[in-house]
Amino acid sequence: MTLQQKTIQRYRQLYPNLPLREISARTGIQITRVFRLFNGKIMKVGELEAFEKAINAKIAENPSFEKLTSVVEQASTILTNEELAKVAEYIARKVSARTFGRFYIKPNYESAIIA
Amino acid sequence: MKGLSSLERIILEGIGKGVLVYEEIQKQTGLNENVCYNILQALIIRGLVKTDGIKYRISESLSPLIIEEINGKEAKEAEYLELMEAVVEQQEDRVFRLQKIAMDSRDEKIFVAMLSNLESFLADAHKKAHASVSVKDRKVVFWGMGNVDKIITQIVTGK
Question: How far is A57 from chain B (nearest CA, A)?
Fold first, then answer.
């Protein structure tokens, strides 16, 4: 998966089912350009940064995420490989359970809603 | 994620040895429509469940590698922890006790014998009600015992 695809997928995970008009308003990217980007048009650096900024803003809404990333950094230096694997498995299970509860298993940015 | 999630396991237990339509699986498991559908699709993609479009059944010839992946020690332990955590975190109708008990060797033997009786009782209860009680209405029961010193060592060293 390219960086562009990963970024768009991450964006759609954090902002699910957002109309194109809303995405355009949040990123400052023109609506038709957003449609083209979601359908494979190559992203400019400024556009990537706009999506990254929106992603980081969403993540910052959840203070526990900062705690998690900080603890994971500590864990990587203290825990054994097996213990890290167990922690990763635990998180993966939580994610899997939440994912099953969503309407789509995989985010589908090809079906962008045009408001 | 390794192994099965408890949700996937519930679906497989709901299907069991039968061949069920979607509505029957939903009724057995009590899962929300979205969740049930998503999990079934995931199990089909993994090759654990087969469907003719209407009925679902567990795949017959699973490779030893897949069986080890879903029923192996690590996979099962992860599921146990998932279920136990859910029991501990229940908000309503929670039935859970954990205590550090001082026990002499005689009382320990009596307690172990009681656990053995409990296990027989539960096995009989399950055998009796297995066909009539749906998966969603069954009870998750667990018990265990360990020495404080060994548990603390486990926590500190991971071994």
Answer: 28
Nearest CA in chain A to B154: A83
pLDDT confidence bin for A114, thresholds 50/70/90: very low
Instruction: Report whether CATH 1.10.10.10 matches the domain B1-91.
Output: yes
Q: Given 3-state DSSP classes, what are the helix, strand and coil percentages for chain A, each rounded to the nearest 5? A: 70, 0, 30
Rounded CA-CA distance A74/A68 in Å is 10
pLDDT digits (tens, 9 = 90+) for B1-16: 778 899 999 999 999 9
Sequence-distant (≥ 6) Cβ neighbours of residue A102 within 8 angstroms: A16, B34, B38
Higher-confidence residue: A105 or A85? A85
Which uninterrupted H or E stretch holds B58?
A: strand B55-58
CATH 1.10.10.10 placement within chain B: 1-91
